């Protein structure tokens, strides 16, 4: 599991670090950590529906912020729990473009061991860094 929860960082919210050897891996792990805050066992989320998102930003941290925010928005508006199937990030003249295919299903409390509801992604302590060839993010989620 290339993410870990930071229990001493936020008392009323939930914080985690996620990492990967590429930006894409870090984005996938941050999405998995966000889902894992809401669902105890993310493997219970079946791939019944798919959708594609394309997001742009000139900063990698804000691109991740937008991506995680979209996952929370889709959960709230369509009641969909989603996992990443395919992801690519391109740098076009300083503008980063995220193209991601997601798959998941509607929230079913009978099948999904729900934990807490994520209301949003905060900018508190939010960062993305690359150190020693590893991309790492720190995220605090509002619950």
TrEMBL record:
Alphabetized InterPro entries for the sequence: Archease, Archease_dom, Archease_dom_sf
Give the GO biological process terms. Answer: tRNA processing
Alphabetic keyword roster: Calcium, Metal-binding, tRNA processing
> Has UniProt tagged this entry with the keyword Signal?
no
Matches recorded under Gene3D superfamilies: Archease domain
Q: From the UniProt record, which GO molecular function terms apply? A: metal ion binding
Q: Pfam families this protein is in? A: Archease
Q: Which domain of life is it from?
A: Bacteria
Please list the residue ranges annotated as the Archease domain: 3-143
PANTHER family, A to Z: ARCHEASE, PROTEIN ARCHEASE
What does the similarity note say? Belongs to the archease family.
Name of the protein this chain belongs to = Archease
Question: Which organism does this record belong to?
Answer: Geoanaerobacter pelophilus
